[in-house]
Amino acid sequence: MRATIIHAPGDIRVEDRPEPKITAPTDAVIRTVATCVCGSDLWNYRGINPVTKPEPIGHEYVGIVEEVGDDVTHVKPGQFVIGSFIASDNTCPNCRAGYQTNCLHRDFPNGCQAEYIRIPLADGTLVATPDQPSEDLIPSLLTLSDVMGTGWYAARAAEVKPGATAVVVGDGAVGLSGVIAAKELGAERIIAMSRHESRQKLALEFGATDIVAERGEDGVARVKELTNGVGADSVLECVGTPQSMHQALQSTRPGGNVGFVGVPHDVQIDGQELFFSHVGLRGGPAPVRAYLPDLINRVFEGRIDPGKVFDLTLPLDEVAEGYKAMDERRAIKALLRP
Questions:
Q1: Are strands 312-315 and 334-337 parallel, antiparallel or unpaired?
Q2: How remote is the C-alpha of 299 from its chain's centroid?
Q3: pLDDT digits (tens, 9 = 90+) for 24-71
Q4: Which residue range is the domain that position 258 belongs to?
Q5: What predicted TM-score, i.e. pTM, was given to this entire model?
Q6: CB neighbours of 26 closer than 8 A, spacing ≥ 6?
Q7: Are residues 34 and 90 in the same domain?
């Protein structure tokens, strides 16, 4: 099969690899219908995360079940399925508490930018769609594997409530998905922080009511201006840099909450500042599996259309261009067709 391999920063190749096999009775093998490049993949592509040897890459997927292990009973061959970017048994205490990405038996499917993938803990990880989806639904369903579920978790962690004012820091696919989530959870005002016109337009289409193009202290000042000097009830931090975290914390009112889902890189938080701010802070790897059934229904019912974050579609053989386009911010998110 063809699979994407990262050899070094900036060096993405499609190579022939053996097709995956069932190696444990809880496994499933999926024929990939669509996959994509994630913003977090760019940490490796840019060399911020070390790449020491050639390795498969990619963790977002939808596809058709080809084969299952003897212990798999919740999905069967022929079904169209979506799974979280972290595999979980969905039965351990952490899973039952709604934090499947901290499953006591979690596993990390990798190499999903490929024609076939093996998913461990298939019963706890994969969710079948009600029917075979139409072609136009596939991009939105693909976002549920990570970015839409992650944006949803950011909004939940920030405790977005009906009537709230929410700020979204970050205009990538996760941030834009966070705008959708904030609107679905009832936010009355949604301030999207973005300096890119195409992303601003999509944020407005998804439900943002205000756009703030300023960053850093200027961005914080603009949010305070828009909120009568108080700050927002809920802030979704969807980047993972020191500047974005500072901006998020400073934009939150006393008693408000920050949900942070951008993987932190060199982020340090001043304990005294946090203590006296009365701002709540919760985040981490999004428990996508917890939200899949609900989000699948919202997509099938036409309530949300997060697939619009894909503004570049390429065959798998051109995956390197997808990485390059996202790295150069010529694309929000690249969808790949094996």
A1: parallel
A2: 16
A3: 999 999 999 999 999 999 999 999 999 999 999 999 999 999 999 999
A4: 150-283
A5: 0.96
A6: 69, 71, 72, 89, 120, 121, 122, 123
A7: yes
